[in-house]
Design a protein that fits this description.
Structural class: mainly beta
InterPro entries: BAH_dom (IPR001025), BAH_sf (IPR043151)
Shape: globular
CATH architecture: Roll
Pfam family, one: BAH
Number of helices: 2
Protein name: BAH domain-containing protein
GO molecular function: chromatin binding
Radius of gyration: 20 Å
Low-confidence stretches: 7-57
Distance between the termini: 44 Å
Helix content: 10-25%
CATH topology: SH3 type barrels
Mean pLDDT: 78
Number of domains: 1
């Protein structure tokens, strides 16, 4: 069964869906991920006479910050890329980890790392997110879900999809912890925890130290683990398991 990640007030035209398919990053082992995501077309309000002071908070539009990094595409596919944007008086930038709003009937937000920030020709702003998976979202190939060691635990993935900037709720902290280290205590280091990578194609879990990653993927893991450990400090090693022989 294909997992579809859905966002509030989201719909797609056939032309938009064709473009989104081109922006999707390939999953582990350079194959296309099974998941699909719907991207919204936010239409301008029909009430053009609403004075600025009466605009509701949910109607606030995101604003690009700083000079463009680059411009890609042509015609209606032309995109301007930025390092930062502001939305509802909060500033976000590349590599920030954020919570993303889902449909109203799905209470738990998605979690992703911002990998690209773009502005379309019609002024709509989008982010390219690299996704984390909760236990209930990471399905096994034969069915069922993977066990976790802590309710804070997430699975990292190389699955990327584009969503509207309006989906962003706020920043969050995700700590990447090496396989041989203990999880940090919640009171000292709040936030989510990652120790495994979820292969969205083969539906299996991998250790961050496993072999077989592409060079760019392994570098990505190494950088993000080093960044987390510099924030967490020296965590205790896991206690060795004792085996009893009869």
């Amino acid at each position: 069964m294909v997992l579809r990640r859905r966002f509030a007030q989201v719909s797609t035209s056939d032309e938009e869906e064709d473009f989104v398919a081109e922006t999707r990053s390939q999953g582990h082992n350079s194959r296309s991920p099974v998941e699909t995501m719907e991207v919204s077309l936010y239409e301008e309000s029909a009430d053009d006479e609403t004075p600025p002071e009466e605009v509701k908070p949910d109607d606030v539009k995101p604003v690009a910050v700083g000079e463009p990094v680059k411009v890609t595409g042509r015609g209606r596919w032309r995109r301007t890329h930025y390092r930062q944007f502001e939305y509802k008086d909060k500033r976000y930038e590349l590599e920030d980890t954020v919570l993303l709003r889902q449909e109203e009937n799905i209470p738990m937000p998605y979690i992703a790392i911002i990998k690209d920030i773009t502005k379309k020709q019609d002024g709509r702003m989008m982010i390219l997110g690299q996704w984390f998976y909760r236990q209930e979202e990471a399905k096994k190939k034969g069915g069922g879900n993977w066990e976790i060691n802590d309710p804070r635990e997430l699975f990292y993935s190389f699955h990327r999809n584009e969503v509207p900037v309006e989906s962003v709720m706020h920043k969050c902290v995700v700590n990447f912890v090496p396989d041989h280290k203990q999880f940090p205590k919640r009171r000292d280091n709040p936030g989510f925890i990652v120790q495994k990578v979820y292969d969205t194609v083969d539906k299996k879990l991998l250790n961050m130290t496993d072999k077989g990653y592409e060079d760019a993927q392994q570098h990505e893991i190494d950088v993000i683990v080093d960044k987390s450990m510099s924030r967490l400090g020296d965590l205790p090693d896991l206690e060795p398991k004792l085996f009893h022989f009869i």
